[in-house]
Amino acid sequence: YIYKEATDASAAVAQEIASLIREKQSQNKKCVLGLATGSTPLGVYKELVKLHKEEGLSFENVVSFNLDEYFPMDPSSSHSYHHFMHKNLFDHVDVLPENIHIPAGNISLDQVHDFCLDYEEKIKSAGGIDLQLLGIGRTGHIGFNEPGARSNSHTRIIVLDTLTRRDASNSFNGIHNVPQRAITMGVGTIMSAKKVILMALGENKANIIKKAVEGNVTPLLPASFLQNHPNARFIIDSAAASDL
Ligand code: GLP
């Protein structure tokens, strides 16, 4: 799905999320959202905040699971995805704090295994993810599932690709400050979502979008696994579509 302007793509995704939240509300059900960080979903979050303030869209029935977090990472750090999500969405809507889930970057290494099993368990007991929002890294990663990730992988700790760390280096004031690892939902976790929307905006995503959409399905490009998902869409702007 190609939109001329990035703002139109973001508005369309926000509208779709809002309709799902409202639909679940009318059925007295929770709406389980898988959420992403990075610059790409910022417009969606801005629009959702606007819908909350101007149209009274409530997030009281929303249960959220974020894709990933750097490791190690203190949640109070301005570099954390905890900080990002609160600053750009959670602080401005009426989501219940107990319904927010983000992988913990501040646990010890020997707690990670149990934490990851528990994260998967929580997703399952919430009834699974209704809608998973994704960005895409220039390595083709979804969440932090870097090239080599298996299609059945679950929440775990991974080593970040150098290109990913280089892309993050500006906001960390240098690549040496970017953590080497992260905790991420797996490809299998993402593939279990009932609906997936991958967003890509801008010309620097054009090459990886072409490979993910038109290339082979391969662990060398984890986003390509979405070709096998029964309800996944890529919502991109014309710049990200320029190599298709
Ligand atoms: C990080 C996140 C991904 C995101 C990617 C792209 O690596 N873990 O979830 O998709 O960045 O970021 P951006 O949207 O800023 O291009």
Could you walk me through the main structural features you see in this protein, from its secondary elements to its overall organization?
With 244 residues, the chain is α/β, with parallel strands linked by helices. It is built from 7 helices and 10 strands. The chain has a single domain (2-237), classed as 3-Layer(aba) Sandwich (Rossmann fold). It has helices spanning 6-26, 42-55, 81-88, 109-125, 162-168, 187-191, 206-214; strands at residues 2-3, 31-35, 62-66, 68-71, 100-101, 131-134, 156-159, 181-184, 195-200, 232-237. Strand 9, helix 7 and strand 10 (232-237) form a beta-alpha-beta unit. The protein starts with a strand and ends in a 7-residue tail after the last strand. Helix 1 packs across helix 2. The longest helix is centred in the first third of the chain and has 21 residues, at 6-26. It is globular. Helix content is 33%, strand content 17%. The strands form 2 sheets. It has a 7-stranded parallel sheet with strand order 1-10-9-6-2-3-5, sandwiched between helices. The chain has a 3-stranded antiparallel sheet with strand order 4-8-7. 2-amino-2-deoxy-6-O-phosphono-alpha-D-glucopyranose is lined by residues 36-40, 67-68, 135-137, 143-144, 164. 2-amino-2-deoxy-6-O-phosphono-alpha-D-glucopyranose binds next to loops. Residues 6-228 form the Glucosamine/galactosamine-6-phosphate isomerase domain. This is Glucosamine-6-phosphate deaminase.
